[in-house]
Structure formats: C-alpha cells, structure tokens
Write a structure and sequence with these properties.
It is a single chain. A hairpin with a 5-residue loop joins strand 11 and strand 12. The protein is mainly β and 134 residues long. It starts with a strand and ends with a strand. It is built from no helices and 12 strands. The protein is rod-shaped and about 55 Å long. It folds into 2 domains: 40 residues, no CATH class; 87 residues, Sandwich (Immunoglobulin-like). Strands 5, 8, 10, 11 and 12 form a 5-stranded mixed sheet that branches. A 3-stranded antiparallel sheet has the order 1-3-2, with no helix packed on it.
Length: 134
C-alpha cells in the first residue's frame, strides 16, 4: 500500500519539509514522505494465543505447573516478532485463576498482546475437588 505519511524525523532523509506555526506560536516542522510504504508499519499479529487452561493440583498441593507453547507472531516486514508470555510456561500457578499475557514485539518496536487464563483446581487426599475456579 502506498501513500503519504506525516512524520517528524531527521532532515537528511526528507523528501520535502514544510514549516507551520502551532496555535501557541511554537515552531513545528512537518516532514512529508511521499510514496512511503505504509505496510511496513503494521503491528504484529499473534496467531495462536492459547485458550483457557484448566489443571488440577496434586492432592495436598496448593500449586500446579502449567505448560504451553508460546503463540506465534507475524508482521509484514519479513522478520518474525519476538514473543514472551508472563508468567512463563512451566511456572507454578496457585489454586484459582491467573491471567497470562503474551507480548509480541516486532523489529521496528511495534507490539501486540493476547491473554488467556490458567485455572488451577485443588484436590483433597480422597480425590475430591475442593477448590475449583471454572
């Protein structure tokens, strides 16, 4: 997609610059790029964010370990955005509901997030669920 974008950047990469006065008479420079490829500014897209995970803690335990594969991300720059989730896969989760947030960051600094819940239920020694946060 081609178009014109308004950006304030270094003078050495300008196609054209124009000067305008702001309402409080401060000098503002507007730099106009012509035929700038707008598609390179797309934010990352997280393709495979996990869905809610439900796990059961071992009898007498107050936590359980949850694992998942981090989501994949893409953008249109050709580079693969870096993805991290917090808490991380393999972490111990307390009984109850914990929100996991995954962040994708592209090489040009654009970010995207997705969330899912990890639900941990507890069990007593006789195999009955004693706490369930479904």
């Amino acid at each position: 997609m081609k178009g014109t974008i308004l950006v304030n950047v270094h003078l050495d990469v300008l196609t054209r610059a124009s000067t305008h006065l702001h309402h409080n008479d401060q000098l503002l420079l507007y730099f106009i790029y012509e035929d700038f490829d707008l598609s390179v500014v797309e934010v990352p897209v997280l393709d495979t964010c996990s869905i809610r995970q439900s796990i059961i803690a071992e009898p007498g335990q107050l936590t359980a370990v949850a694992t998942w594969t981090n989501p994949t991300a893409r953008d249109n720059t050709g580079d693969i955005p870096h993805v991290n989730c917090y808490p991380e896969p393999g972490a111990a989760f307390s009984i109850g509901v914990t929100k996991v947030t995954c962040f994708a960051k592209s090489i040009n600094g654009h970010t995207a997030t997705c969330n899912f819940d990890v639900v941990v239920a507890g069990m007593c020694k006789f195999g009955q669920v004693i706490i369930s946060a479904t």
